Amino acid sequence: MPNLNEKKCEVVQVRLDAYMDGELGDEIAGNITRHLEFCADCSESAHAILHAKTLLRRAVQNEVAPNALRETIQKQIHAEPRLFRFLFVRKFLTAATAIVLFVCFGLFGIFVWQRRSPSNLAGKSSPSQTFPGQITELLRIGLGDHVHCALEEGYAERHYTVEEMSGKLGAEYAGLVPLIKEKADDGFDVVAAHHCTIDERNFVHLILRKNEKILSLIITKKNGETFSGRGGIALLQSSGIALYQEAIQNYAVAGFETETDLVFFISNLTNAENLQIASNAAPAVQNFLEKSSVNL
């Protein structure tokens, strides 16, 4: 696909916020998805928007403003009604934007209040402080292999026999083919499986397909990475396995770790559907890997 010119990048940048909120039609959203796969600048902008939305959402969910702060904000609103009348009556900003500004003012007040609280003045961190961007960074390891092999190289369009896939995986990993087919939703078929290398990192990659739905199971050896200590919150515990998931570039990306491996489930399914398959498969995949002593 040829590089898109700067004008098209400008169009994509303007629509990124609506795209991340799922407010665009399928055709426009599809065009933007394809653009993000090949444009590093726009992809970086999309990631920044997602990160900001995640931070705001978690801040709103986790923080409760003190009563004194709420009363102060309410008094300021009533004392300066002209500002809000200007926002709505003159249609300088949309109602949604004004609400966002109100939330941001409130969060800023919470931030100031926390900074002045005794625990933070003593140098202690807030127990609710999280760093979701670090989890996203780790999940991108699997996403990069999915985009390269399943989409760019076209493996999702192929259909190998079980014997061919077993040969490509080798005896150590051939058992993953029937395992993942059993754990995925009905109708998914394993169409490709192989070893691959992206940016000098080795992967085991299985690709499943159900009509236009594409799902990858990706495994790679740890290189000092771990989900622990990155501040993220596991969305689901499946048989004692902590599963993490983010929506990245319009893909659902879930991951977990064993003592030696990182395991990813990436798809164009909904977040809930992708997480359900990951939850179903994770215990069996972990058990399979613990029995294998092979280095990728």
* Assembly state of the chains shown: single chain
Number of helices: 11
Distance between the termini: 31 Å
CATH fold annotation of the largest domain: Phosphorylase Kinase, domain 1
Question: What is the second-level CATH architecture of the largest domain?
Answer: 2-Layer Sandwich
* H/E element order: HHHHHHHHHHEEEEEEEH
Mean pLDDT: 77
CATH class of the largest domain: Alpha Beta
Number of DSSP E strands: 7
Q: What class do helices, strands and sheet pairing give?
A: alpha+beta
Strand neighbour order, sheet with most strands: 1-2-3-7-6-5-4
CATH homologous group name of the largest domain: MucB/RseB, C-terminal domain
Give me the Rg, rounded: 23 Å
Which percent band covers the strand fraction? 15-25%
Low-confidence residue ranges: 83-96, 112-132
Topology, pairings included?
Blueprint: H1 6-20, H2 26-38, H3 40-62, H4 67-79, H5 81-89, H6 95-116, H7 118-121, H8 132-152, H9 162-169, H10 176-183, E1 189-198, E2 201-210, E3 213-221, E4 236-238, E5 241-248, E6 251-257, E7 261-267, H11 271-290
Antiparallel strand pairs: 1-2, 2-3, 3-7, 4-5, 5-6, 6-7
